[in-house]
Amino acid sequence: MVINERSSRIMNSQTILFIELVSVFIGISLFLWLLVQILLQRKLLGKYLAKHKEFNKDDNVFDKVERFLPSVASNDADSIERKFYSAGLYESKYAHLYMPVKYLSAAIGSGIIYLLLGKDSSMTTQVALMCIWLVVCISIPDAILSSRKKALEEKLSGQLPYLLDLLAMCVHTGMTIESSLSYLAKEMQGFDKDLAHMIARTNDRANIVGLEPALDELYVRVPTNEMRSFVMTLKQSLHYGSSIYEILNTLAADIRSVRLLSLEEKVGKLAAKMSVPLILFIMIPVVILIAAPGVMRMMTGVY
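Above: the chain sequence. Below: its structure as tokens.
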């Protein structure tokens, strides 16, 4: 009886220790993943903005800290609105409530965890669970917005060849680029609202600041290779006055070929990716089933 009670205590302590270690590992993994995503995004935008001298070399320390502050901790309303806009949420009148709702949810969830666990668990377990909930509340909403942004960029890049074909047809009929963009923005409302909104936004900005700055802003909003080719093609046509009809048709065909090659590459990688479930769900459980009896005997002191 004493041996069984002692072994049960050992098992409980080891289970709690295992849960705490897993909680710390999950929290650190989420933080590192979020940090890597932020650094990759800033590196991509930095390469483009450096060409236009957006970064001032005379910035003081506070400006540098503010610029490299992670977006999850930023309270800037403009940056939050840009984040919502990039995710396809164009009506962002409640964007100023985004950060307060995140931190309020983290505080309420931590209080609920404390009330539910109470005195039945150790302080270390409560702190570990609160830390996990805090990381989830802070990182998951940003991860959702980031995934929506990537999906929107992929969608716009996929629809870009069709836009180039329509734009080439409009130009071939004698319309200017500005009038073609205005016409397509109205006509495509019933087909693709995101693409129509992108064209309308570019056309509105072109009427205010000019077509070239509007195209630069378009690439900042959708930083993909296809959009870069589209922007560079239009800018070269504006600079040198070359015929844009054949160039747009050629660019549309090239983008389709590149996307087809990327799709074939993904299909070719499926064979290697299928081995991952085989290892995770078959080989590892077999090893656990073989080693578990001996490990349990060692933990209970039975040899």
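Residues 53-73 have pLDDT under 50 and may be disordered.
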